[in-house]
Specification:
This protein is an alpha/beta fold. The protein contains 11 helices and 6 strands. The protein is globular, with a radius of gyration of 20 Å. The protein binds zinc ion.
């Protein structure tokens, strides 16, 4: 038997019994995860490892390229997961998590590399804005690795922009009940960078500094004067 698949017996015989109180509580009371993480499907980026999550802590959606298609009438797995996480589970934070050496981003950098994979090619079109930004806003000659890194970081920014087009997300942000985060895991260094939405920069997450936030939760103020006039 595949050695990996066989580890299910270890879960049943050891892991589950030693966490039976936690699983019992989750089975009885249901889940109330604290955050949604949308990460790449890459096997080296494990959302639960990265935030040291226990069962019940983290709602997770993974796909090639940590992509969030912009809101549309067409149904999709990511859109449905986002909507459920916000509307039903009431998560207060959504993290879009990219990473170094991302196959999806490297494919996007190489025209023709997805010619025999029509689904992948169509999916990666959701990152075309990031590709265009990476090509035109970073004019210096970069090697292949640098181009992939630039694209991965810009892709996190682009997918956060898409996330904000989803009505459930836009409304939760406007109510001041949801914050958005953009992360990048450097799998060579074991380091996580976070996007600061104010400065537009990514910097390492360290315990001695406030967590950089892409879009902080904040009450909507656009129509404040109208509300004041009505009161
Ligand atoms: Zn990836």
């Amino acid at each position: 038997m595949n050695e990996l698949i066989g580890r299910v017996f270890s879960f049943q015989d050891h892991v589950f019994p030693s966490n039976s109180d936690l699983y019992g509580k989750l089975a009885r009371d249901g889940q109330s995860p604290k955050a949604l993480m949308i990460s790449c499907a890459d096997s080296r980026v494990v959302p639960e490892y990265i935030v040291q999550a226990a069962p019940g802590d983290l709602f997770v959606c993974r796909n090639a390229g940590n992509i969030v298609p912009p809101y549309s009438q067409a149904n999709g797995g990511v859109s449905s997961t986002v909507e459920y996480a916000v509307m039903v589970l009431g998560v207060r934070d959504i993290i879009v998590c990219g990473h170094s050496d991302c196959g999806a981003m490297k494919a996007l950098c190489k025209p023709g590399s997805t010619d025999n994979m029509p689904n992948v090619a169509a999916w990666l079109r959701h990152s075309n804005a990031a590709l265009k930004v990476a090509e035109e806003a970073y004019p210096h000659n970069h090697d292949e690795a640098d181009r992939a890194r630039i694209l991965s970081l810009e892709n996190v920014v682009a997918q956060i922009t898409h996330l904000r087009t989803h009505p459930s997300v836009a409304a939760a942000i406007a109510r001041g009940e949801l914050a958005l985060h953009g992360w990048y895991v450097d799998i060579h260094a074991g380091e996580v960078l976070g996007l600061d939405g104010e400065t537009g920069r990514f910097s390492p997450l360290t315990a001695d500094r406030p967590l950089p936030v892409a879009l902080a939760a904040g009450q909507r103020l656009a129509a404040e004067t109208l509300q004041e006039a009505a009161e």
